[in-house]
Amino acid sequence: MKRLFRIFSKSPEDLLSQGDRHLASEGYFEARTCYEDALQKCAEDASAALKTTLQERIAGANYKLAERNLQEAKFSFDRGEVSRALDHLDLVKTLTYDALLLEKAEDLRQTYSIPEDKQDEAVPASSSACGSCSHGAAPAHEETPQFHDTLAPHEYYELLIRQLPDDQYQRYSALGEEFACAYLAASRDSHLEALSGFELCSDTIPGDIYWCEKGKVLHRLGKIPEAEHAFRASVEINRLNAFAWLNLALLLQEGDRFQEIQPVLETMITGGLFADTARLIRADVLVGREDLDGAIELYVELLTSSVKTSAAEKLHQLLIEMDRHNDAAVIFKNYMGKCCH
Question: What number is the average pLDDT over the span 108-119?
């Protein structure tokens, strides 16, 4: 019963850790969703430090999404798609208050000689290429910009899959309207609609993608055995599907299934499938098994990796909990003392 309660009632700390792992693997939208869910779950008496951390993480994920939109605006201008480029530049403004990014967005607008007061004339009403998609879901958190409300569904789908590595982006961009609608439904937590949509296109999309995306929805619904089956089916079909391996690892970690997670992490590390993220999860597992020296050693190794920010924060927190405040201060000074994007 205690195990089931934990699965269905993730704490803010659990969601924070899950968000960090998505952030480390460049899943910025999913990371932000975890952080927002964690902030919503925080009780009134939750520590101010935790709330501040979550707010900073949300801002960080939004910053990364803003960077993506800025890049997409450049691509759109280069292709002559002025309307889409303006949409992306507008999203940059809604996602971040970072002065440098906002300046870059404005410079880009000026480079193409489109005055801000002429936007309404330049941007016609978008028509959806995904006619069956529901596009009127109420925003879950008013304090965070719901930028999908400003885009046509096919444009929002494009924005989401642009977060994926290039090889996966190429695959997802060719999956068709039915899959896109199901993917969008999953992104707004319309779980049953998403599952129904994935079933509709199950015979027309690659099996590993079908099982991976279905597994993610089942996992969020708390259907752990079904989700695990889906992730394992995905990697059985395609051993190189990094997202399926990552989601399987997260599921096993949440269940404290430390023995079962080891071969999954080893496959990811040796296969170069989010290898640094897998090593970060391995360090987290060592903490869960109370092998603190082993965890510290691995976190230190990761300070020069692609997940160095998350590793530094986890190492700093662990050292504080071990009353090693001098060591924690060194980590803070060298790796956390200034904001690095």
Answer: 58
More confidently predicted of 322 and 69: 322
Task: Say if 281 falls within a structural domain.
Answer: no
Q: How many domains does the chain have?
A: 1
Which residues, other chains included, contact 196 with Cβ-Cβ below 8 Å and sequence gap of 6+? 182
pTM: 0.63
Residue 129 has pLDDT above 50, yes or no: no
Residue carrying structure tokens 């990014």:
101
Is 49 contained in some domain? yes
pLDDT at 195 over 90: yes
Please report where in the chains the tokens 């965070």 appear, as a residue. 144
Supply the DSSP string of 151-176, one letter for each residue: S-HHHHHHHHHTTS-HHHHHHHTTS-
Phi, psi of 324 (to 5 degrees): -100, 65
What is the amino acid identity at position 273?
L
Q: Residue 153 in contact with residue 129, Cβ under 8 Å?
A: yes
Task: Let me know: does 88 contact 72? Beta carbons within 8 Å.
Answer: yes
CB burial of residue 202 (10 Å; 0-12, 13-18, 19+): middle
Contact yes or no for 108/77 (Cβ under 8 A): yes
In a domain, 133, yes or no: no
The answer to whether position 83 is within a domain reads yes
What DSSP string runs through 57-94? HHHHHHHHHHHHHHHHHHHHHHTT-HHHHHHHHHHHHH
Structural domain span for residue 84: 10-124
The Cα 233–Cα 227 span in angstroms is 10
Count of all residues that appear for the chain in the document: 341
Integer Cα distance of 62 and 327 in angstroms: 31
Euclidean distance between CA atoms 135 and 156, whole angstroms: 10
Torsion angle of alpha carbons 306, 307, 309, 310, nearest 10°?
170
Q: How far apart are CA 310 and CA 185, in angstroms?
A: 29
Above 50 in pLDDT, residue 142? no
Cα–Cα distance, 315 to 295 (Å, whole number): 8
Does residue 161 contact residue 172 with C-beta atoms inside 8 Å? yes
